[in-house]
Automatic annotation (TrEMBL):
Biological classification of the source: Bacteria, Pseudomonadati, Pseudomonadota, Alphaproteobacteria, Hyphomicrobiales
Family, similarity comment: To bacterial alkanal monooxygenase alpha and beta chains.
Alphabetized InterPro entries for the sequence: Bact_Lucif_Oxidored, CmoO-like, Luciferase-like_dom, Luciferase-like_sf
GO cellular component terms, semicolon-separated: cytosol
Domain Luciferase-like: 5-300
GO MF entry, a single one: oxidoreductase activity, acting on paired donors, with incorporation or reduction of molecular oxygen
Origin species: Tardiphaga robiniae
Name of the protein: Luciferase-like monooxygenase
Length: 337
């Protein structure tokens, strides 16, 4: 069965402050562990008042401390924003605290606006060093050599697994060349999904970390009792994307009855272009959507975003998604139970 994992946005809502968002994320991870999800990732976002995961390694520690077995990691760290040694120190520390449970997904984009990039003391030119920075990270995580004068303490010997994240063919080429697992961000940039996966599989070179390719596909999924209710819950995410185009990013908003009253035709076209691979509906609809996506992409793993406003309702969505996916390995009679 294709593995299921979660990318949590750590949403700050109109009814929940940043502390509430962080605690909700930890609570979701605990439930996800029991429901059989493989990993729980959070991402680096800066200068966004509706997302509380800017200090990504700190958030990962908070979540990992509230769980026991699920892998916890970054999906991802935007490496151009950081000196590799600092990331190695942070994730090496996490690996010492939570051995065998920490993942480090790496993105090439700065993941923010130019004003914030200046505040981070970084520049666009840092992206040009992405391949070299990854190899530098790998060296810090490897066992220290005799007489090695520079170490990322306590990272040496932790061998934290690295992932390459991408929304274009560049990441696919790099992941294949380095022999690393690859995650494609089709939950917001679906355009080059199939081409990128083809490149990754065709050009993969085995490495010490990975003997064979491992492709993860990001996908928005919302499950509810009916298709209509799931589509209503989806309006929270649709409004978030619309606000992004308007330059008015804010707190996550509760769902509305008619999304057509919120966005203009051009905004709808933009948002739905980015969200077009979303799977929204009842458990049966979600089961069919997952089956079709896995058949089309050959994904080894799905990284699921269920951007639902209310925490309890979001928990229900993720539980139903897990049940729907489990039903794919059952007979038709068993799947309807």
């Amino acid at each position: 069965m294709t593995a299921l994992s979660i990318l949590d946005l750590v949403r700050v809502t109109q009814d929940t402050d940043a502390r509430g968002a962080l605690d909700n994320s930890r609570d979701l991870a605990g439930h996800a562990e029991r429901w059989g999800y493989q990993r729980f990732w959070v991402a680096e976002h800066h200068n966004m008042i509706g997302i509380a995961s800017a200090a990504t390694s700190v958030v990962i520690g908070h979540i990992a401390a509230g769980t026991k077995t699920i892998r916890v990691g970054a999906g991802g760290i935007m490496l151009p924003n950081h000196a590799p040694i600092v990331i190695a120190e942070q994730f090496g520390t996490l690996a010492r605290l939570f051995p065998g449970r920490i993942d480090l997904g790496l993105g090439r984009a700065p993941g923010t606006d130019q004003m914030t990039m200046r505040a981070l003391r970084r520049s666009l030119q840092n992206s040009d060093n992405f391949p070299q920075d990854i190899q530098e990270l790998q060296a810090y995580f490897a066992p220290a050599a005799a007489g090695q004068r520079l170490q990322a303490v306590p990272a040496a010997g932790t061998d934290v697994p690295l992932w390459i994240l991408g929304s274009s063919t560049y990441g696919a080429q790099l992941a294949a060349a380095l022999g690393l697992p690859y995650a494609f961000a089709s939950h917001f940039a679906p355009e080059q999904l199939l081409h990128a996966l083809q490149i990754y599989h065709q050009h993969f070179e085995p490495s010490e970390q990975s003997a064979k390719p491992h492709a993860m596909v990001g996908v928005n999924i919302i499950a509810a009792d009916t298709d209509a209710e799931a589509k209503r819950l989806w309006t929270t995410q649709q409004m978030s994307f619309t606000n992004m185009f308007r330059g008015t990013r804010g707190l996550s908003a509760p769902p509305i009855d008619d999304i057509e009253t919120y966005w203009a035709p051009a905004e709808k076209m933009q948002a739905m272009g980015m969200l077009r691979r979303s799977i929204i509906g009842s458990k049966e609809t979600v089961r069919a959507g997952i089956a079709a996506l896995v058949e089309e992409t050959g994904a080894d793993e799905l990284m699921i975003v269920s951007d639902v406003y209310d925490h309890a309702t979001r928990l229900k969505s993720y539980e139903m998604i897990a049940e729907a996916a489990a039903g794919l390995n059952k007979t038709p009679a068993e799947a309807t139970c």
